[in-house]
Amino acid sequence: MMSPQVTLKTISKYTGFSVTTVSRALTGYNDVAKETREIILAAANKLGYYPNLTARQLQKQRNDTIGLILPTYGPRFNDPYFSELIAGIGNQLSNFGMSLLLSVQAPGPDEISAYRHMVEGKRVDGLIVVRTRNEDERIKYLLTTSLPFVVFGRSNIGTSFNFIDEDGEAGVYELTEYLISLGHKRIGFISAPFNLMFANYRLEGYRKALIDHGIDFNLQYVYEGDLTRKGGELGAKKLLSLAEKPTAILASNDLMALSAMSSAQEIGLTIGKDLSIAGFDDIPPSDVFSLTTLRQPIYHIGCLLSSMLYKLIQNETLDEPQVLLKPQLIIRNSTGERLVD
Amino acid sequence: MMSPQVTLKTISKYTGFSVTTVSRALTGYNDVAKETREIILAAANKLGYYPNLTARQLQKQRNDTIGLILPTYGPRFNDPYFSELIAGIGNQLSNFGMSLLLSVQAPGPDEISAYRHMVEGKRVDGLIVVRTRNEDERIKYLLTTSLPFVVFGRSNIGTSFNFIDEDGEAGVYELTEYLISLGHKRIGFISAPFNLMFANYRLEGYRKALIDHGIDFNLQYVYEGDLTRKGGELGAKKLLSLAEKPTAILASNDLMALSAMSSAQEIGLTIGKDLSIAGFDDIPPSDVFSLTTLRQPIYHIGCLLSSMLYKLIQNETLDEPQVLLKPQLIIRNSTGERLVD
DNA sequence: GAATTTATCCGAAACGTTTCGGATAAATTC
DNA sequence: GAATTTATCCGAAACGTTTCGGATAAATTC
Q: Which CATH architecture is the domain A65-166+298-326 placed in?
């Protein structure tokens, strides 16, 4: 089936030089005569030689590969940005001549096995962890190994590690403050599931902004959504059925915000007038529907993650081992001055 | 840095049995005494042995890995479904104990190099090609190798190959016919870039449905969009500025449809009444905005691609080497009977 | 009880690289 | 012209597995 493999040995036999010399000629050592090198290069070219990467990896004890395990459930999971994150990671990686080994494994008992497989099977030189959770066991595990890794997101595990995260708290604080400046006092919040770290930071930004401006933080105005359309819809319905209805609603991601927007419209509210709505992510359709939101530079974060990890693998020290990026507030028409009540 | 590697040799020294016996005990050969096996297993356990996958790969000439190269440009590329596709591919793959090596490489001169790297560097047992183009050179290249591969999408290269594709033509045909049945006669079409294969199939479904129902196919009503918000907006503007305005607009993807929807609303049109709009993909926000569309089972397609490729790698023959899946028409409120004109 | 079978084990080679530590012959030095 | 340096090359070992083809001793057969 496979065309017969052309190896160093093939070239060695073909040219009469030893495998050592062929190897050294091909990898550019300077103890090979110019003429010899040319002969060998010509032969390699003619025979169609391409180094066997697996053999090289075994010998060099280096894979030039990093791992990423997507913590994802079945179809229709809510990660509008995994593609973009992967694009950032992958593009940057190829600048370093490295590749990405990707697995998909839903959180659960098999998840750590997937990590062990990559780490202890020595398949990767480093790992990227995404979507951090409370007491994140993946990070705890990796800390017990000596493998370099970087994390997208923070976790409350008591030990420090290298990470990049968006500053969800600062972002939502700014957004909430902006809504308050528009006159809003009753602001609803549709949160992400509380076991996800980012959910807490975003909620905290909201809470702090309220308090700092003398507004009570009232759990009645907080709904724990599931990041999907359904969550936004249920959240909006619940919040809008309160006796004292909110005049603005923040959602922890754009999909829920868009869905809340649509629900509110259905009961006759005009968005940006009767009710202000804002989200988080800036997914492409948000632009279309003029949703005020916070933009995370996901692609850029992917690039940064790769660069950090690459430095760690090269045994360089990071000058910034923990990076917090402030999301950018994008003001559009879904938010406006409080008019009602 | 790295904790000292525990290899078969370590266990061999520790237990006094040869490396051969240790290997055979660990991989379950039946020519090892039960007692011996137990001693070896206990030692492996105690020492924390995990087989070095790279070494195994080299020896077995098998990587248990397949490759996928994402043909993607910088940030904000328009592939709402790459995450979902990858989730499908990856989940299915892990059922087979295989992993996914992923690269990101924009179409262009370096793209084939990325393929050569995986193929000729013997890093993968098979490949998946996505987002097919006219005269797709990636497929042409892979056909010159003996490596198994499957393609998501078709291409006009004159040689047959294994693929799965959604039947865009049949889907759009059905959708167009549906619009015609609602009384629409002037139907605009916002297409994807013509160099992408799927663009042509979708356009063709539209064209055929018109012709079959005695409606002229008029290029004036076709706009070549870029799959982004901008494309939908420009398409809608152009089509709605025609002397004889369309009463319905089809877009080649949901993002352009949603954007067209928003543009039309801005100039005072009521969607589903004054103007019907439909898309293709069924991305999550489409549900929110009640967009009529065609749903592709992307996750399922990912699973199928993995299964097909796995069979090929096992040297089994495919009973269905070329699969065409009909997308499902999802009728929502963005389409309705022709009222105007 | 000799011949055969069976259970258990292992040495050596192989997968395709890289690299250490020379070896050899030519060139240079004094 | 002997001693030293330099240019060029290579054998062997190693990375950590798997597997071929036995070897040995015990068990079984007749």
A: 3-Layer(aba) Sandwich (3.40)
